User: Fold this.
Amino acid sequence: MLHRPTEPTQDFVKQRASPRDARRVVVMSRKPWQVFEATGLAGLQIPHEDVPTILEAARRFDATHLLLRGKGERSSLGQIYLNPGSDSRFEFVARDRRERLYRLHLD
Assistant:
């Protein structure tokens, strides 16, 4: 069965991105094909690495958002999942049950 990201991703598209903006949105997630299927947004898989490596991949491939579905998706991102706002590079945007959506600040 295909898991479709629910409220965080869909609300982001409906409420926060115009069709023109959506072309520039790249969501980093564990299962980017599911994000694309549910939203039509470009996706990038979260590397199974430490936070600096994940952020480097995000920079390299122009990721704008991070979608986490549970604290165990990537152990290095567990604190970000459990404590939204604990790292200024990950701006908490929305949540729905286990899913958390963050805007990435990669400056």
